[in-house]
C-alpha cells in the first residue's frame, strides 16, 4: 500500500482513525502533508454578510482584506476610525458611502441598525463599550481579543450575549489554524496516549517586543491590558483548547527586567535621533528598524506618496514614541513571563512568553503516556514510545490555500470564513471561539496577572 493511499484510508485529514502503533510504523520516518476538510456545516451563501468595522488599523485590515478577497462572502459597508488617513484608505478599499463613515465608534450607533455584524478591532480599552452597544442593537459581533480589559467586563459581555442571543465570536484565531486543529485532533484520538503535560513557548521576537510593548500602543498596561492578555491570551486559550479540561489553578512569575532606565548604555539619548553615541550598534535602534530597514512603517500612517521619502520617516522618529530610546520609555509590560497551570485530571501545563528571541512562531511540546509531540507551527513531529518511530506532519490546507498568508498559520481568514457562515445561518455552532468558549482563557489570564503581582497560587472558577 503506497503512503498516499494509506493516508487517504486513515482519514488523517478527516480525523477518522486513531494512530495506533502499526499505523505509526507504516508512516514512520516520513513527512506527511495533511489536509483539513471544509467545515461540513458550511452552506452556499446567496448574499454576503454585511459588516461595519470599528477600528481600521492592522487587525481591522486583516478582516477587511478577507472581505476584499471574498466580496461574495463579506461586504464591509461602514467604518469608524478617528485617524483620517486610515478612514480614507479603508473607505476607498471597500467603496464605503460617505454617510457610513464615522470618526468615532459612538456615532455608528446613533444610526438605526444598518448591517448584519460589527467587527470590533478598536484598541483594547475600547472593546467593552462598543460591544455592549452592538449587542443591545442586535448586531452579531466579531470581537478582537482580548474581550475586555477586566474580568467584570468580560463576564458582562457574556451575560448580555446570552440574554440577546447574538453571536459573539472572539478572535482566538489559533483555534482555526490547521496546525493546532490537527494537534487537538490527534491528542483527542490518543496518538500519544493519555496526555500528561504540555510545555508551550511564545517567542515574541526582540524587535516585535520593542515595537509593540516598549514603544508601541501596548507599552503601558494600565492604559491598555497586561501583556499576558494583550499578547498571550491566544496561548492560554490554545493550551486550554488542546487539553480540553477545565483549568483549576494557576501561578505566574515575570517582570520588566531589561527595558529600564538603569540599563541605558552610556552615551545613549532620549531619542535615537538625538545623536546617540551607541545608536549604530544598539539592537533596538529605531533608525535601523524603521529608517534603514523600513520595517513596520504602517504605524506612521504616511500618505502613499511619502512612504518612499526618508525625511518623512525621520520626522516620525523625531516626534513619536517610535523614535524614543527603549530604555527611556514609560513602559511597564514584563519582558519575560512564565505561567504554570493545573487542569482537570491533574494535567499540567507550563507557558513561557519571552521577548528576547531572534525568532517568532509558537513552539509546543506535548508529553503523553505512549508518545510525545514537538511542533513549531510549521511541522508536528510525533514519536511513538512503543515503536520508537517518528512521523512528521506538515499542514497543507489546499482548499483554503489563499488563506495561508492571512496570519496565525491561516487562522485569521479561516475564522473570518466561519464567522460569515455562522452569521448567515444564525448558527454559532460553526465557530469554536464563541465568547462562551473563549472566556475561560481570559479568566486564566486575569488570575495569572494576579498571581504574578501577589506571589500566590490562584484558583480558577468560572
TrEMBL record:
Pfam families: GFO_IDH_MocA (PF01408), GFO_IDH_MocA_C (PF02894). One of its GO terms (molecular function) is nucleotide binding. Residues 54-171 form the Gfo/Idh/MocA-like oxidoreductase N-terminal domain. Residues 184-458 form the Gfo/Idh/MocA-like oxidoreductase C-terminal domain. This is Gfo/Idh/MocA family oxidoreductase.
